[in-house]
């Protein structure tokens, strides 16, 4: 928890006092446990929180968050009153969204305006008002006295690619859109474009409000150039990785050469081995992809490719996962860790002795990005929040 609060402080110092951080805590605070993380961030000074949905916003309110909550993917039709009752601030993408809120305000006889943030599509091609519809939206929203356009925002598709032309175009389009809204008399006080990548490397996207998620949890982007080569000139922020993922050995067995292990017998030992049975599986969020390789049936030719790409740490040493990851169990070859025993701590993300596996490492061995690895940590994994 101290690492999380530290990271918030690092970002605020980096951004300066005039930029408001909207702490993105969607998807259970990127798997870290939102009911503990959001209040801790509030304690560290966060005044705004970014969530995906009304449901996530309500969870924050129930956890005692009193700050502003931006529902970044907007509301499902029919959720307007609930959102208003919980003082959630919805993103809107269409004039219809704003009208539905105005109607809810009338039904609730609100004597204040409902603040909304307009999301515009500057090039991500996903959610957001198309730029061609900006003026129609502006004219329409001005006619809704119950709705206040508090913010305008957009999302960057490739902020970690330092020389990305698409990002430069997105920034230009966003600035042009602010000008077009101003020409219609709309000057939303909060303007935001920056996710973690842009917070790290693109001060020209900060305006007065930013929406970092990943950086809060201690991860830098994998900065790169357009051609895919790593970019080494982005100054690193002194962030601390917040989360460790640990479990235990619940079985150890010595097996002979030629022993098929786990589902489909997809891994066959080439030599006598000591195998630890570890209490973790895809039901906990460990991707089965770390063990996807040679198919069925297992033959001696499968032995090499059947070695999973993933590793764990135990007793300060690295040990490979072998065989298929199953729902609850994972097999680890601990032949070289002769003292390995039932009850030993096994680290999937974190440190053991001088060894370190980061969530990025685990993501790479699962063919994915760190975001997915963190968000996939399932409900079944108990979170322990410690200083
Ligand atoms: C709209 C929006 N803003 C901000 C973020 C935070 O992004 P990051 O975790 O890269 O900082 C996300 C995450 O996907 C997002 O969808």
Please, could you describe this protein's structure?
- It is a single chain.
- With 387 residues, this protein is of the alpha/beta class.
- It folds into 2 domains: 216 residues, TIM Barrel (Alpha-Beta Barrel), CATH 3.20.20; 131 residues, Lyase, Ornithine Decarboxylase, Chain A, domain 1 (Beta Barrel), CATH 2.40.37.10.
- Helices cover 27% and strands 24% of the residues.
- The protein has 11 helices and 18 strands.
- The chain has an 8-stranded parallel beta barrel, surrounded by 6 helices.
- Pyridoxal-5'-phosphate (PLP) binds next to helix 9.
The main pleated sheet reads as: 8 strands, parallel, barrel
* Structure summary, number of beta strands: 18
The CATH superfamily of the largest domain is: Alanine racemase
Structural class: alpha/beta
The CATH class of the largest domain, by name, is: Alpha Beta
Amino-to-carboxy terminus distance: 5 Å
**Binned strand content:** 15-25%
CATH fold-level name of the largest domain: TIM Barrel
User: What would you report as the Rg, rounded to the nearest angstrom?
Assistant: 24 Å
* Structural domain count: 2
- List cofactors, ions and other ligands: pyridoxal-5'-phosphate
Named CATH architecture of the largest domain? Alpha-Beta Barrel
Q: What best-fitting shape do the alpha-carbon axes yield?
A: elongated
Order of strands, main sheet, comes to 1-2-3-4-5-7-8-9
Q: Count of helical segments?
A: 11
| Low-confidence runs | 294-307
